[in-house]
């Protein structure tokens, strides 16, 4: 039986919500590369303290983790939900009620993690939040693997983009995610985000001070991969050339091997301090002015287990 065939949900009919452009009828139950039909599935929702300071703030980011992923890197630290399908079905009304409950926690923003393949649901939800006069910043936390049409539409409904720039090396993108075209697709998507929203609008007023919660703009993330430092150096050089030294950039060092990394060389280990230092030094040499970074080992409390009610140990110790 076809569901959601009309209105907000028609994009599921011949799905081209991401660059994979599978053209399957998800309303009829078909699944494309993201592994999901048009039935909304969510793995976890709650205040999250593992994002960058202007995003997590002091009250947390209201994070929603969707099941499935259009990019599907084998090393994903969220592989239980992105590749293994852990999650629960939600009706549209249930989704709205759950998000309103999240808002009551006092979070600084609503943070949609890799939402591309469920964008029609998210768009519908945000329209519902607007009807409730909710003005909390809406944040797209994505893989960087987006169509330009989807970025432009997301920009109409949301305030902050937190895209990854994972791969500058097409060969590595092919090996990790079967997406050789990722480097240019992601760059164009990020450029489009910056055009629409500018750079993230929250920085500490003085050295050592807390950043106020961000309300608008773009912050790009790059996860350093073990044994693939050249990819990171090229990623930073390319971002600097295309978007300038003031691009807000977050260097992430929390790579943690999952079961799918077995037998895959360097992917079976965390990054080393030396690898991190080489990438950090490159960011400094390139003159990035707005840089977040995390020393290796610091992010261990935010390696999730989505079988737990609260998947992140780092969130459990909060009041
Ligand atoms: S969202 Fe899923 S089904 Fe749609 S094009 Fe992307 S991978 Fe394919």
From TrEMBL:
Domain of life of the organism encoding this protein: Bacteria
Cofactor dependence: [4Fe-4S] cluster
Binding, [4Fe-4S] cluster: 69, 73, 76
Record-level Gene Ontology MF annotations: 4 iron, 4 sulfur cluster binding; metal ion binding; oxidoreductase activity
Record has Oxidoreductase as a keyword: yes
Alphabetical UniProt keywords: 4Fe-4S, Iron, Iron-sulfur, Metal-binding, Oxidoreductase, S-adenosyl-L-methionine
Cofactor note: Binds 1 [4Fe-4S] cluster. The cluster is coordinated with 3 cysteines and an exchangeable S-adenosyl-L-methionine.
Family: Belongs to the organic radical-activating enzymes family.
Protein name per Swiss-Prot or TrEMBL: Radical SAM core domain-containing protein
Record organism: Candidatus Raymondbacteria bacterium RIFOXYD12_FULL_49_13
């Amino acid at each position: 039986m076809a569901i959601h065939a009309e209105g907000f949900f028609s994009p599921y009919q011949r799905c081209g919500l991401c660059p994979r452009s599978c053209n399957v009828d998800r309303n009829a139950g078909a699944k494309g590369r993201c592994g999901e039909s048009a039935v909304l599935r969510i793995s976890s929702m709650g205040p999250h303290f593992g994002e960058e300071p202007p995003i997590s703030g002091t009250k947390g980011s209201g994070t929603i983790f969707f099941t499935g992923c259009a990019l599907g890197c084998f090393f994903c630290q969220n592989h239980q939900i992105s590749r293994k399908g852990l999650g629960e079905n939600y009706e549209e009304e249930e989704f709205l009620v759950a998000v309103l409950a999240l808002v009551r926690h006092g979070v600084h923003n609503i943070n949609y993690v890799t939402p591309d393949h469920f964008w029609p649901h998210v768009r519908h939800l945000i329209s519902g939040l607007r009807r409730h006069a909710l003005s909390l910043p809406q944040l797209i936390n994505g893989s960087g693997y987006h169509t330009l049409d989807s970025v432009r539409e997301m920009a109409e409904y949301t305030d902050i983009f937190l895209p990854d720039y994972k791969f500058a090396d097409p060969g590595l993108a092919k090996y990790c995610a079967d997406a050789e075209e990722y480097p240019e697709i992601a760059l164009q998507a990020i450029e489009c985000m910056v055009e629409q929203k500018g750079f993230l609008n929250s920085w500490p007023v003085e050295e050592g001070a807390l950043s106020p919660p961000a309300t608008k703009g773009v912050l790009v993330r790059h996860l350093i991969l073990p044994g693939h430092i050249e990819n990171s150096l090229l990623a930073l050089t390319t971002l600097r050339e295309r978007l300038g030294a003031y691009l807000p950039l977050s260097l992430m060092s929390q790579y943690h091997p999952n079961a799918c990394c077995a037998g895959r060389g360097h992917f079976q280990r965390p990054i080393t301090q030396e690898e991190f230092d080489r990438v950090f030094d490159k960011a400094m040499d390139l003159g990035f002015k707005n840089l977040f970074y995390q020393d290796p080992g610091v992010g261990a409390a935010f390696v999730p287990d989505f079988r737990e009610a609260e998947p992140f140990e780092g969130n459990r110790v909060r009041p």
